[in-house]
Amino acid sequence: MRTHKSALLLRRIFSLNNPSYGGRRLASLSGNPLIDDSDNLVIVEGKASSRTAILNRPSSLNALNTSTVARLQKLYRNWEDDPNIEFVVLKGGGRAFAAGGDIVSLYNLIKEGNLEECKEFFWTIYSFIYFLGTYLKPHVALLNGITMGGGAGISIPGTFRVATDKTVRDIFATPETLIGFHPDAGASFYLSHLPGYLGEYLALTGEKLNGAEMLSCGLATHFSLIKKLPLVEEKLGNLSTDDPSVIEACLGGEGDSVFPDQTSVIHRIGTLDKCFSHDTVEEIIESLENEAAKTNDSWCASTLNKLKEAAPLSLKVSLRSIREGRFQTLDQCLIREYRMSLQGISRQITGDFCEGVRAKLVDKDFTPKWDPPTLEHVSQDMVDQYFTPLSAFEPELDLPIKQREAFI
């Protein structure tokens, strides 16, 4: 564990060299629906030697906007520098932890041609994710409810993640291919490090995992029954330590043993690896079709249906992203994902993101018209363009990798 003294030294150096880290052009974004100056977006509770940040947009399932993430960045920076605060807890208000980014607001901005505000959102959240991945104090995320997309991004890079039994199947998901996008917010890093090819499966299908499955595959570090969560929070609030092993012992002592049920994808990891280890989306689909024909396995059929729902270009882009993530650090994944996200919202290659959000969340007709419409129409040039460095006129995501080295 790095000492607080070294944290302060790093902060001084960092502040001098990167005064704008975590933000791009917020002052110019008046009227941006992703910007809300209210401090109530994140509620703070003070404990003996810790602080708890509570995401407070329950009506939107705590969907993340630029202001929410900027507020977290400011709070976490101050807490890291405060010697009286030894660890940090993050949770969501209402029935969700965080249902990802506020993609409807992004959709509206894109339709209006306001891409700069969209870029600011991605810049801000990816910067915070790296800040969390390099945080100098223990971090506990209480994933008591829906945790999707960006919600996973602002929790998984931290020290501890506590899943619960609040819902049966809708705790965790990265459903971006179903809206014409790609798993981002660090997803290409953490998904690529899951057992076998589970990351590819989750990235391409957008399938959900429950708390027991999250614990089993490593997305969560601990599990608590919802009825015991207040006791877990009380025990954490009484701790006075910056030692991760003490916090882990507390979480483990109040935690519960749980195992995925027999229908879980965790018990199909052999078949999953056999099908999703292939190099191309077409080969994955062919393998699933062959397996379905041989075994009449309903899991294969439902997985094929999920892949058919997704945007063809998103499938190919996402598979490549996860495969590259296997050999990249957290910062490299975030910088690449920033490029990919800017391509995804530019509509220069495809308008699939807007079409997916329209069909799923705006008009809710659930019949997106993907462009290109099939895998056969997806060219290699289309995929390559997502991974191309940005132009000289568009800055790359600037992370303080020399001042803050990721622990994960």
Give a written overview of the molecule:
The chain has 408 residues and is α/β, with parallel strands linked by helices. The chain is built from 17 helices and 9 strands. The protein has a 6-stranded mixed beta sheet with strand order 1-2-3-5-7-9, with helices on both faces. The longest helix is centred in the N-terminal third of the chain and has 19 residues, at 115-133. It starts with a helix and ends in a 22-residue tail after the last helix.
Summarize the structure.
This protein has 408 residues and is α/β, with parallel strands linked by helices. It contains 17 helices and 9 strands. Strands 1-2-3-5-7-9 form a 6-stranded mixed sheet, with helices on both faces. A 3-stranded parallel sheet has the order 4-6-8.
Number of helices: 17
Biggest pleated sheet: 6 strands, mixed
Instruction: Estimate percent helicity.
Output: 40-55%
Low-confidence stretches: 1-20, 25-30
Overall 3D geometry?
globular
H/E topology pattern:
HEEHEEHHEEHEEHHHEHHHHHHHHH
Describe this protein with a few key phrases:
408 residues, alpha/beta, disordered N terminus, six-stranded mixed sheet, 46% helix
